[in-house]
Structures are given as structure tokens and as C-alpha cells.
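User: Hey, my collaborator sent me this sequence without any context and asked if I could get a structure. I don't really work with proteins. Can you help?
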Amino acid sequence: MNTNHLFDPDHRSKAPLAFVICLSVLIAAMLLASLTQRSFWKVSVSNVTYTNFNGILIRAKLLKPLNATGTHPAPGIIYIHGYQNNRETGDAYCIELARRGIVILEIDAIGRGNSGNPGQPDHPDFDPSYGAKRSLRYLLSLPYVDSGRIGLMGHSLGAELVYAMALQDASVKALVISGFAYRDDASTDMPQNMLMIFGKYDEFRKRMTATRDFENEWMQTPRTRKVFPVPDPKLGETYGDFENGSARRVYMPKITHLQQSHSRAAVAEALEWMKQALKPAKEYWIPSNQQIWQIKEWSTLVAMLACFTSLGPLGLMLLRTSFFGSLQSPVSGNYACTGRLYIRPVILNGVLMWLYFPVIFVLFGVHIYLVRIDKVFPLMMTNGIVWWFLWINIIGFIFFRRWFKQQHRESDLTLYDLGLSYREDRFALNGIKVAKTCLLAAILFLFAYLIEHTLESIFLVDFRFIFPFASDLTAYRARLWFTYFPFLLMGFVLMGIFLHGQLRRPQKATWLKTFVSWSTINILVLTIPLILFLLLQYVPLFAFGVIPFVGPGGMFIAYTHNLFHIIGVLIMITPISTWFYQLTGKIYLGAILNAALVTWMFVSSQVIAPIPV
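Assistant: No problem. I've predicted the 3D structure and written it out in C-alpha cell form, which is a compact way to encode the shape of the chain:
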């Protein structure tokens, strides 16, 4: 593996070309995502902001079909996402409804995205609707919205919010709830024209429906008998009359809770329901099976990957400059971890990662019974993940120290060989090099953030795929970045010691082959334990209808959902740390950069609100 070849001034570097290609793909993908949500110039999309009754800012995305005017008003719908999401999560429904002639207000519920913070539930000005009621008034104020054709939609907690509104407001003529179930207070005519979408494998079914077997039990429950005007209602059949608001239907796709936000079948059901209930203009209607929202979802993923990939060639170009050139260094020593010396720490890593629930449970015990932490660390779901990530790496470092002392005695292995020290004889940091490393990491991070921020302000799309990953920061969330960054930095430094030091695999014939090999193996080491954990949750669910991990109020289910997001993050950031470890021979540049990127992901996308357990 010849690292010096990459820095040879007589060698023509391909880094500038790779950087330009990444930028081109990034911009093209963001443009395609934007065109998709605009239905290729048939829908105008804009950011709107308005103030809640308690002075808290609400941000929303307004999708307005071009045919909607003051003289020809269109139906209007508000969509509200689930607890741990932002407005973009409803794009599958909202894009398709807007391109069929319906005005859509897609809100960041208060405490999510770029809306303001909700405050404490015991405060007299706390809004339990998280801005939903104010959003309805805003939608009704638009001159091109027909106030007689208003619908509400939501998923999970968002469905709970819109259900409560529709139950009390007869002006709401249609309701679609997914991942949530109507309650005992529903009747045969309120809420009006109600469609319930609930997955056969929805993990929250016991909490939402009080059933163990939703498919066979739900339609015979007392709740359903109050809502449906027939003695023996069936899943997938429509009852009642749209004209008098008594239409009722329960649709059960064979999917989980998360999938209900991105299901073609569920979207098609909602489209047909709103068509019958709100009667948009027939000439603009498109068959419900013709859906384009997936283009946007994949485009934003490609854009995100292109952005993070561009940091590699950009970092190489900067390392080739005279200022940062002192950071150049090949991986030192001949150490490589193989055989049993490799298997043992890999297994230990898996065991530590499986401490996910116990460590998080301890944190919430501290929060509930000893000292409340949410005023300083308001991202309560993120707190559990950061706490877990930090502590498993601290425990792992304790085992690393024992291992290193033994290796040092037996084979004279040094911390310099592992990429931890700047001196061969003892552990030492080089102040100037560390400062330059921090500066280079800051430049790379700011480039990633500013390019996303700029493109989001132009195209009104952010970095996401199923889950929100990274978006522009409000001033408050930017301050939170500095709150969480030190803890994630410590975790990533310790992870780098383990991943690139102790677990370093043998080098391959070329630099690129080594990068691909090390990145792939490192990703597998970090993600396989989490994938196995997910299998332990979902194999019994799909095979026997049993959910092993539920927790108080379904808390463990929510944190199991977060593992999908964590796996995605690890897949994206592990090659970054591997790349810069190979270029600098040290773990620090990759650790600092990854800590900055992941902190950005968490503080921009995670919820600030009480956990509904």
C-alpha cells in the first residue's frame, strides 16, 4: 500500500476530477428531488412560517398545484409526521396528493425540524397539538383553498394529533390515520370519512389497538363496533356514505409501523380515499398506482452519499497543500490483526453493542429518579443513543488497554504503530499537528454543511432516506451541536482506537484495495451485531406475531426503530474514518470529522419533545 504515491507532486492526482464528479452528482440529485416534489413544474413548493398561539414558530412546506386559484379553489390537506421525524417524512403522500390537484401543508410539528421548541408539558402555554391546530387555521386562510373540502392526515403520533382535531371539528371532511387507531370516542359519523391504515406487523399494535392479532381481532372490538354502522365489518371494505361523512374503512397492508410512511399500497389507499371524500378536479386526477415519490427519496439518498463521498477527494487535495502537508503519513508499523486475535475483540464488540437497551434504560432511570437532564440535553431519544455509544466505547477502551499492555510486552507493539501517538517511544500528541487536524476537519465539515444548507435553501429538499439524516440548523439547534459534539468526539476517538488500531487488518497490494477491504470489514464489524439484534426483534414478529422487545410504553420499539438509522449512519461514516486513517496514519482526523458530521445529523433531525411513554 503506497500512500506516498498519492502525495507525490509529480503524480497527477485524480482527486480534483473525483471531487467535481461528486459535486455534479450531488447537485443533479438535489435538482431531480426538487423537480419530483414539484411534479415537474405542475406544483409550486415553498417554505412558509407562522406563529403558534404561544409565540412558537412553526415551519411548513406548502405544495400548491398550479391550477389552484382564488377563483378555482382546491381541496386542502394537512399532513403531520410521527414522533421521531420531520415534515419530509410525509413526502410519499404529500407529493402524490399535490400532483393530483390538492393543496398540501406539510408541517414540522413543534419540536421537530425547523419549528420551535415545545417547552415542558406542565407549562400553561404548552400546546399538546404541537402546532397542528394553528396549522389548520393557516390552511383555511389561504384564498386558493376551498374551506368546505378540508382533510387531515398523519402517521403515528401525527395521526393521533389529527384524529383529535377531526373528532372535534366538523369542518374536517376527511381523515386518514396510519400507524394509529381510532379510540372509544369515535362514532359512526365523527371523525368524518375516516380511513385507518394499520400494518399487519405494526410493532405498536398492542399499545394502539390493544390486540395481539390485529388481523383477526380488530374488526370485532367494541371500538370498531361503535364506529362501523354494520354488525360484522371486514378489513379492506368501505362502509357508510361520503356525502354525510359516515364513510369508514380499515386497510391492513402487510407491513410494519415504519413502512406505513413509504408504502405504495398505503399511499394508493389514501389517494383513493381523499379523491372520494374531497372531490378534487377530475381533469387533474392521475391513477393512484402511478406514483413518483420514490424518485425523490432515492435522489436525496444519492445526494447525501455524493456529499459525504466528496469529502474524501477534497481532503486529499487539502492534504497535498503545503499547509496541511505535515499531516501526510502512511500507516505505520507492520501490525495486523488476524485469527483468534481478531475474532475475540470482534465478539466482545458485538456483546458491548448488545448492551443497547440496558445502557439506555439506566440513562432514563437517572433522568426520572435522580436528575432531569432534558433541560441541558433536550434531545431525549438522541441522549439514549449517545449515552450507549459513549459507554460501550469506554468499556471497550478498558479492554483495549489490557490487550495493548500484553501486546507491548510480547511483541513491542507501540501506540505509534496503532496510529494513536506522534512519538514512537511513548504516547504523545503534537500540538501543531493536532491543531491542523482540527482545522482540516472543521473545513471539511463546514463544506458538507454549507453545501447542504445552500442546496436545501434553493431546492427545498434535505438529506434523507426513509429517515431524516441531515438538514439546515436553526440557531437553537446549532447551539445544541456544541452541547453534543464533545461526547460524540470522545466516542469516535475511542472507536477509532479499536477499529483502526486493534482491529487493523493486513494491507492489500494497493492503496485502493486496502481502503475497500478495510472499509468493508469495518462496516461489517459495526453493523452485524445491530443487524442480528434487529433479526431477533423481527423474525419472531413476522413468523409468529410476537414482539420480543417492547419496553415501557413501547420505548424499546422506538429505540429498535432507531437502529435502522444508526446502521445507515455507520455505513456512511466508517469509510470516511478509514480513508483519512490511511492518508494520515492517525485516527484523529477521521474521528473529529465523523463526530462533527454525526452531531449535525442528530441535532438537525432528532426530536425535542417529551417521549410519549
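In plain terms: Residues 511-544 form the longest helix (34 residues). You can pass these C-alpha cells on to your collaborator as they are.
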